[in-house]
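Table S2 (text version). Query chain:
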Amino acid sequence: MAFLKLSSPHAHGPMSTPKVMRLVLLATVPGLLALSWFFGFGTLINVLWASLSALAFEALALRLRGRPLGFYLNDGSALVTAFLLGIALPPGSPLWLILVGTGFAILICKHMYGGMGYNPFNPAMAAYVLLLISFPVEMTDWLAPRGAVASGDLLGPLDALLRSLGMAAEGSALDGISMATPLDIIKQNDALLINDLWAQTPQYGSVAGIGWEWANVGFLLGGAFLLYRGIFTWHAPLSMLAALSIMALLFYDGGSSASGGSVFFHLFSGATMFGAFFIVTDPVTSAVSNRGRIIYGATIGVLVYIIRVWGNYPDAVAFSVLLMNFAAPFIDHYTQPRTYGHRKAKAQEKA
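Corresponding structure-token output:
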């Protein structure tokens, strides 16, 4: 009889890998719905196409490596990578762009290093950075959110779905309703006071941009759900948000033309909450100890602010995470918890 040659652990308890992955997928729903409501069906199409292509690339990699397809395809890790990448990409991204991203994430960032649990870098963020550097035009083409365009420009649900499918297939945005994100706008501003800038910016909402505010609230709710279920601890996400808030508070000048934005602007714009609760908490590529997670998350928060305000990219979660993926083993080395009985043995030696 042939047995599967699988390494430990073999636990099938209430927090098995497939169940954890399903909970993560479930937690993305509030933010995904918010993005779909304000930016159309493009994000749902991103996620669906990324999921199909990720499963295909996963099956290809498993076949080439001689691994059992059913066991590894059912663990849900490929779907989580696809969801995270699909959410991060602009709504209605070209199908070929998503295909390149998922292929790089699954084949290069995951299986080239040995599969799940061995990858040193977050696959979704590594693929996002590859696409952003290689295809900057397609990666910065965001649609105007619902509420920032004239009501006559809004499409019905069926028309919106068909137009989104056409955008994905043709690789082009709808004429007339593509706009820069609030992070882009504030980064490019060098003349207007913040209040004047927002007064003439149709997509600016109450705090950080129409659609972006609610999307971040949705990912915050999903992250709180995962935290409640014990999928991860509070150390990394809360330290990231705290560090980002402190940086924004320290360098906020009240709203001059050189301002980098307020605390709430940075917390509820871009991919802040998505990054804090769905990217920074990746158990494979982050620090291991609680003290290490605090350092890891806080440094990411500082880097996000630095790159957003003084760097070349308006949103910086992916770059910050990848930089700290490099540093995670170094952090682990210097934040190892004290072994059991260490103090007692040391006291006996002195005696």
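Notes on Table S2: Residues 187 and 314 are 6 Å apart (CA to CA). Confidence is low (pLDDT under 50) at residues 150-159.
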